[in-house]
Automatic annotation (TrEMBL):
Belongs to the class-V pyridoxal-phosphate-dependent aminotransferase family. NifS/IscS subfamily. The keyword Iron-sulfur applies. The keyword Iron applies. Residues 6-369 form the Aminotransferase class V domain. Keywords: 2Fe-2S, Iron, Iron-sulfur, Metal-binding, Pyridoxal phosphate, Transferase. Its EC number is 2.8.1.7. GO terms for molecular function: 2 iron, 2 sulfur cluster binding; cysteine desulfurase activity; metal ion binding. NCBIfam families: PRK02948.1. It catalyses: (sulfur carrier)-H + L-cysteine = (sulfur carrier)-SH + L-alanine. InterPro entries: Aminotrans_V_dom, Aminotrans_V_PyrdxlP_BS, Cysteine_dSase, PyrdxlP-dep_Trfase, PyrdxlP-dep_Trfase_major, PyrdxlP-dep_Trfase_small. It comes from Vasconcelosia minhoensis LEGE 07310. This is cysteine desulfurase. Its cofactor is pyridoxal 5'-phosphate.
Amino acid sequence: MAHRPIYLDHNATTPVDERVLAAMMPFFTEHFGNPSSLHAYGWEAEAAVKQARATLAQAIGATPEEIIFTSGATEADNLAIKGVAEAYFAHGKHIITVQTEHSAVLDPCQYLETLGFEVTYLPVDDQGLIRLDELEAAFRPETILVSVMAANNEIGVLQPLAEIGQCCRDREVLFHTDAAQAMGKILLDVEAMQIDLLSFTAHKLYGPKGIGALYVRRRAPRVQLAAQLHGGGQERGLRSGTLYPPQIVGFAKAVELGLALMAAETKRLAELRQRLWQQLSQLDQVYLNGHPSQRLPNNLNVSFADVDGQALLLGLRSVAALSSGSACSSARTAPSHVLKAMGRSDDLAYASLRFGLGRTTTPAEIDRVAAAVVETVQSLRSLKV
Ligand SMILES: *Cc1c(COP(=O)(O)O)cnc(C)c1O
């Protein structure tokens, strides 16, 4: 294979772990049955799905019946937000979310606004955290849902889920969290954190793409949800479509591994991230984006003053596969909405890099990338004067 740059974009996606792939393989060719079929082929697929569902439920302190398989976190977010809106609009049409959410949350909210819902987009402080007093002040009698992400995909910041859960439960308002980035990196417990709906996905955690799940609380309170896909009635009627056993088995294996490795990986990745930051912060005018410690262990997001963001990414392209803070705006249409919400200027928001470290990242890779970033920033700055 041709030489490829060092992969430091693990907040975008991750490779499938070999152990995950091995667990999936028999379900493509040998155990290929439809879990809904009432014969031996169906039963063996159904048994594997059942076991995977139990593993996923246990990982977040839920029961198996509370796990609804989807195609990923985008679909889970859509099902949670639109599904609650459609089921509860008679109680009220107000939703609270945050300016720094993923588009899979923001866009369904904006869509609901076109249908007459009102949405409060909470601001964040300069480290990317919401303020609980601002959340408390945003509640209205007609508020039906609060959606706040567990970990941000650009800056890795961890929102205070347990405190938010308590605020929502006190007011009998449902609490949804997008945990696509957090799953397997921090402990998630839907009881302790009083979470009613939780979205997650396999491909951010060394599992396959195209599979995710929504946790939907069944008791105290029992969450009502309107299905967004209608058909064969799978997943208790909440998400029709033939289940995909290879992906489901791989998803569960990925989560199982993620939890088993979590303690050691958290420590290792945090040390690598510190090693990276130490080298980058030798430059003048570099700024860490997001809270310094209340963040994912594998994420570092940095802005560089006096540098063109596009030129920086281009200059590093052969060394490292990175994302700009404005991941989705490579055409420079808009600076990152996350960095803007934290009060960064347009220039600093454009000139940002997101380093997503992963299971295979080594100290030598960190040193090579850090040296290349320092050199590129210095040469772009020297060209500028
Ligand atoms: C990746 C991601 C998503 C989208 O997940 P898919 O499974 O790719 O649909 C949603 N929210 C966050 C925070 C993410 O990081």
